[in-house]
Every structure is written in structure tokens, then in C-alpha cells.
Amino acid sequence: MISATEANESTKYFTHEWSITIPTRPRLKYVHVTPKISSKMLELTMDPKNHPYFEHGRNKVWDEAAMEDFTKIFADGYRDAKTKYDRLAFLVELDSEAIGFVNLRCLPPAGPNNIGLLFTEKARGKGLGKFTMQFILQLARNIGIENLEAGTMKVNQPMRKLMESLKIPEREENKEDPARGVIVAEILYTIPEAVSWDDIDMIVEFGPEAFA
């Protein structure tokens, strides 16, 4: 995602606890998902209502073994990311309640860096998705993450309209998750380096280094 030769303050986004607040949106906060709080991400992932356009997500059975697998896979990925800088997840909080998350992950073998978003049912239709996408692209640029891509299913009209409103063109192309053997996107977006909106004012607060 970023090279080890670029190791500087930016790498703390992968290794430390942090949160980001937005002065113009004081109810909103973005919080780095570390293994200590990965259960919040798991809770959001497990709710079938949070996967209205993705059949595999709706139908997955979350027994104890599946939950343990999620926790282990997340911890292993987090541990690797502390030196490879190849994945980054953060919660979206509104009034201190987790209402979604973002997952940035470098797809093997060498990219692109895929953007994944998930929001709860009650968080949709409030402009949070569009603002969060703008936030993601700026944060990625700030910390040196390039070659960004996003994807969705054809039926996900809200996501497609969101990307259209940001003037990011779509193309039809299937994307398969090799680990699960399922199609995870039918529409892809290559994110341009330049964007057409004003920078978002961010206040970043770093905490201690977090371990798996």
C-alpha cells in the first residue's frame, strides 16, 4: 500500500490507535480498527441487513467457528500490516455509535488498493457514504496510498449514484475474491489521483501503538 522506504509519520496510521474528527461535522468520527476493537467490525459484518446488495454477505452463517476465524484473520492481517502497510480498517461513528466501517486492502499480488465500505441500514440516505468516500480519498492521499480502486454490484444503485456524483466513471468488470471464491463486484472504479472537491479539515489524534 505504501512502501517501507516511505516509513514516517504516515506509518502510524497502520501501527497505532488513532481517531479523526471533522470540525464541520462534529457528530462524526473515524476510528482505527485494531484487534482490541475488531469485535465492533465483526458485529457490523454479521448483520444481514448491512448487506442489501451482496447475497454472500446476507447468507453467510456466523457460527462460533466463523466468528473465531474472522477474529484470527483480522489479527493476522493487522500484524502483517504493521510492517507491510497493506491494509487499513476504520470505523465510522456517529454520536459515538459505530454505523459503518471502511476497509482498505492491497489486493494480491501487487494491487490495486481496494476500498470497501459498509453502512448500517439506519445510516444510509444521509450523505454519509459520499462524505466518507471523499474522506477516504483525501486520507489515502495524505498518507501516500496510491492506485485506489472501488467496486460494487450492478444492483447497488446508491453506490453507483454516489460515485457518479463524484464524477468517477464506472466500468463493468467482475472482481472475484480468491479466498472465498465469490464475485464481490460487477462494477469497478479506478480512482483518479486528482479530485474536484475542497480538502476536508481533519483533526487526528494518535494513541499508543496497538498490537495483535
Span between termini: 20 Å
What is the tally of helical segments? Answer: 6
Q: In CATH's first tier, which class applies?
A: Alpha Beta
* CATH A-level architecture: 3-Layer(aba) Sandwich
Mean pLDDT: 93
What low-confidence regions span 5 or more consecutive residues with pLDDT below 50? Answer: none
Enumerate the strands of the largest sheet in spatial order, edge to edge or round the barrel.
Answer: 7-8-6-5-4-3-2-1-9
Counting structural domains, the number is: 1
The tally of strands reads 9
How would a textbook summarize the main sheet? 9 strands, mixed
Cα-based radius of gyration, to the nearest Å: 16 Å
**String of helices and strands:** HEEHHHEEEHEHEEE
User: Portion of residues in helices?
Assistant: 25-40%
Query: Roughly what fraction of the amino acids lie in strands?
Result: 25-35%
CATH superfamily: Gcn5-related N-acetyltransferase (GNAT)
Q: SS-based structural class? A: alpha+beta
- The geometry reads as globular
CATH topology: Aminopeptidase
Domain N-acetyltransferase: 41-207
GO molecular function, one term: acyltransferase activity, transferring groups other than amino-acyl groups
Pfam family, one: Acetyltransf_3
Organism: Scytalidium lignicola (Hyphomycete)
